[in-house]
Amino acid sequence: MPAQDQNTHCVNCSRTVEEVPLLMLVHRAGNAYICPQCLPILIHQPQELVSKLPGTEALQPHEH
């Protein structure tokens, strides 16, 4: 695996691609990654990621 991939990590929990599968997010600041365990936070509580992922302040949580 290329060296850059070894440093790829979840924006929320910081686990690396070596530890868990990661999903790539494309947003205004470039690419970011999130693990499947943290994906519900992006969907249901995006306000928790405001300091970690630019642009999440504009997201509305999913309505139940």
Description:
This protein is α+β, with helices and mostly antiparallel strands and 64 residues long. The protein has one domain (3-58). It has two helices and two strands, in the order αββα. It has helices at residues 3-6, 39-44, and strands spanning 23-27, 30-34. A two-stranded antiparallel ribbon has the order 1-2. A hairpin with a 2-residue loop joins strand 1 (23-27) and strand 2 (30-34). The longest helix has 6 residues, at 39-44. The relative contact order is 0.19.
- How far apart are the termini? 40 Å
Alpha-beta classification: alpha+beta
Range of strand content:
15-25%
Count every beta strand, where a strand is a DSSP E run of 2 or more residues. 2
Radius of gyration: 12 Å
Low-confidence stretches: none
Order of strands, main sheet, comes to 1-2
Reported for the largest beta sheet, the result is: 2 strands, antiparallel
Which key terms come to mind for this protein?
64 residues; alpha+beta; two-stranded antiparallel sheet; globular
